[in-house]
Amino acid sequence: MGSNKLEYDSSLGGHVSLPTHVQTFRYAANVVSEMRQLIEEVRNPVSRKLVFQTLPKHMRRRAMSHHPKRLPRKYRGAHRSQMAKAGKPQQTKRPSRKFRRRPGNLLRDYLRRQRKNIWLETHIWHAKRFHMVERWGYKLPQSSCDKTYRACYRASAEHCLLQDMSFYACIELKGKLADLRIGFARLSSTCCGFSIAAKTYLTGRREGSIDLFRDGKYPEYALGRISFMWQPISNNETKDEEEILRTLWLWVHPSAYPAVVEELIKVFEVTSLNSIKVPIETDETKHSTPELPEDNKCIFIII
Asked: CA-CA distance, 124 to 294, in Å (whole number)?
């Protein structure tokens, strides 16, 4: 028993000798921790599988881990407790389409989707037929999904063509005609066309457009081209034309809106702004004439 046996040939690895016997007590001392762990596992068996993994293959279904109702009824409670211990949130059922399409819920969902970009009144109609883009805080239609160039040209040449321009900002100015004339003379020039206080526009029957610049910076520092219209006045006015309280509406492109508002505040020395939503007038203020504040040359309202 004590003789050493040669293992392997010298050509394959040299002379390697192995003992002919093993002392069990020394081997057991080296693996005693593993033996204790094995005995513990045998005495107290613990399954490390999830509930749905213990089912036979013929009873398993897709997405059992996400949908407890796909498990047999007696296993659902154990599955929910395992998911709760893992920290996974419970899957909530999405409301039915019939519930989501109710007018109140549909409007609430539309308002939620407008938190980042405001929709136009015609957004739903355009979204079904146009490629939509995000510009200046609005969701705007850019181009039609269909080839409509010839149809649009034919409509504009022979009939009419409508375009939703409600994303333009509307600014209302109220003040004496003389003050408004002097203020806009600092922001524009007659070299670009009729002034904002030209007689052809003062009647309120025609819409005009002018180019605005920084205060006294013409012909540099252009702000953009705006459209405007005067509110018509009654023929019963007997005051001097320059002293009559007039109302002027401006339509400004959203890209130039912040700069235009800044210059208007600077030129007309406005100390406070009123920002309101349409409708502009109420039944109480429809026929009333506002009084000018003492420290302002005009009333500045952003609609």
From this structure: 46
Nearest to 208 by CA among 196, 220, 222: 196
pLDDT, position 290: 43
Domain residue ranges of the chain, discontinuous segments joined by +? 13-93, 99-158, 169-302
Q: Say what the pLDDT of residue 281 is.
A: 45
3.40.50.720, 1.10.760.10, 1.20.140.10, 3.30.70.1400: CATH of 169-302: 3.30.70.1400
What separation in angstroms does the CA of 252 have from each of 170, 172, 303? 6, 11, 11
Residues in a beta bridge with 228: 208, 250
Six token digits for residue 220: 């540099």
- Render pLDDT for 216-233 as a digit per residue (tens, 0 to 9): 888 888 888 889 988 888
Give CA–CA dist 303/301, Å, rounded. 6
Per-residue pLDDT, 61: 79
Ranges of the chain whose pLDDT falls below 70? 1-19, 88-91, 235-239, 271-303
Cα–chain center distance at 48: 45
Query: Which residue in 242, 264, 246, 168 sits closest to 204, CA to CA?
Result: 246
The residue ranges of DSSP E strands in the chain, in sequence order, are: 5-7, 16-18, 118-119, 130-135, 138-144, 169-176, 208-213, 222-230, 245-252, 274-275, 298-302
Q: What is the reported pLDDT for 51?
A: 79
